Amino acid sequence: MMLCNEAYQYQQLDGQNDHMMTTMMMDLSQSPPPPSPSDNSSNNEEEPLEVVNMSGMALQSLPNPSLNLANICKLDLSNNHIKKIPESLAARLLNLIALDIHSNQIKSLPNSIGCLSKLKILNVSGNFLVSLPKTIQNCRSLEELNANFNELIGLPDSIGLELTNLRKLCVNSNKLIRLPTSITCLTSLRVLDARLNCLMILPEDLESLINLEILNVSQNFHYLTALPSSIGHLMNLLELDISYNKITVLPESIGCMRRLRKLSAEGNPLVSPPTEVMEQSLHAVREYLSQKMNGRLVNTSPKKKSWGFRKLVKYGTFNGRPRAWTSEEREGLIMPEYRPIDLLASTRFPAMCSPRRMFSPRTYFSR
Q1: Which residues of 208-224 are buried (b: 16+ CB within 10 A; e: fewer)?
Q2: Fewest C-beta atoms under 10 Å: which of 48, 50, 67, 182?
Q3: Would you name any one GO CC term (predicted)?
Q4: d(CA 230, CA 228)
Q5: Among the residues of the chain, which ranges form H helices?
């Protein structure tokens, strides 16, 4: 609270600079019309909230605006060259609902971001963040957090203890080795995207994510080698993507996921279920894992055709007794009136040795 109170002492520039910055910051197409004279008669009426759009303005630092920051509900600073968000600025955005600072050069977020108690949407993707401040757990109204394409090596251990309203967490394309255990406390979470990281393990108590519908942990490549058995207890899960990892065995509990409608597991050296089962359908995979779990697994591999000894015996090759050839078989296997090679190679018939004559119709051999 001391940090938030000190931020209110933020000094402002002179009137001329304030006027220029206000003109720059406000997106007039989205700002509400100026109040009418009749509105000024009511001193108790609250000021309207503003939408400020400064996206794509090649800003390297934030200006010092005269606009009352407490009146901003949406702030878009994306696609700039900003390297730092001042502590005092974040602490004054008391009514901010959505903050978009994606595609900048920010290396760290201010601790004062925890003062944004009304923040619902936070987009910090496409920066150089190595970590998120622990104070982010104070943003208890947060519903969507997008931190894709950064350099995160970890998330705050307590991130899931307070963000009970979080519905979407996207942390793909980072350097995460693990997800904190507290993430299983996000009971409102519906989408978890942690692909393209270095995840080596997933939390054990995933069944606590009772509302999770989409889970993507694909493309962690050789780091992720196994899935916890609790993954099959996500009864509301609709889509599961575990492709391009090093998983060899799917948990048998996946056979209980009756609401699952999409399973992507290509690019894994799977042994169980075998390849022939994975190539069939999601229903076949569920049935295989369910039977394996109940100890009723049958051989689902297709029967291989036998082309060896059995067929030879069928045709009497190794049955130990001679077999009479039919006239049809004789015509197909034995050339009628076949001439011995001694005759063709004799000196009396030198011209008969040419390949053309040897393999020509028998009219050439007529006497």
Answers
A1: bbeebbbbbbbbbeebb
A2: 48
A3: cytoplasm
A4: 5
A5: 2-7, 15-25, 37-40, 87-92, 159-162, 275-278, 282-293, 309-314, 327-333, 341-344, 355-358
Instruction: Check if the beta carbon of residue 177 is closer than 8 Å to that of residue 155.
Output: no
Q: What is the DSSP letter of 9?
A: T
Helix (H) or strand (E) holding 99: strand 98-100
Residue 48 CB coordination number (10 Å): 13
- For residue 48, what pLDDT is reported? 83
pTM of the model: 0.71
| CA–CA distance, 90 with 7 (Å, rounded to integer) | 9
Report d(CA 343, CA 316) in Å as an integer: 34
Regions of the chain where pLDDT drops below 50: 1-44, 303-320, 329-341, 343-346, 348-349, 363-367
Distance (Å, rounded) from C-alpha 209 to C-alpha 126? 27
pLDDT of the residue at 109: 97
- Model confidence over 16-43: pLDDT tens digits? 334 334 444 444 334 444 444 444 444 4
State how far the Cα of 238 lies from the Cα of 260, in Å rounded to an integer: 4
Per-domain boundaries in the chain: 335-367
DSSP string, 51-84: EEE-TTS--SS-----S-GGGEEEEE--SS----
